[in-house]
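Friendly challenge for the regulars: who can give me the structure tokens for this chain first? No prize, just bragging rights.
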Amino acid sequence: MVLKKNLEKILNDLEKRIKELEQSNEGLRSQFKYLEEKVREREEETKAIINNLEEMIREREEISKEKQGIINKLEERI
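First reply, four minutes later:
Bragging rights claimed.
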């Protein structure tokens, strides 16, 4: 009889622990999904920043070409 009670207690303890672990797992899954979403947001922000920087570079290159053209014309006059 004592053995049966001990086994029942062990079983109950194990069931309780399983439930605790399942809840913990669910919390971790939720945190993981949140972090995945944050990573996606950061990736999009980074892509937008890179695109803006690339556009600024293109604009500056165009301005540099125009300035070089003006310099070349002035040098031809000299």
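The chain has one domain: 1-78. The first helix runs from residue 2 to 77. Your move, everyone else.
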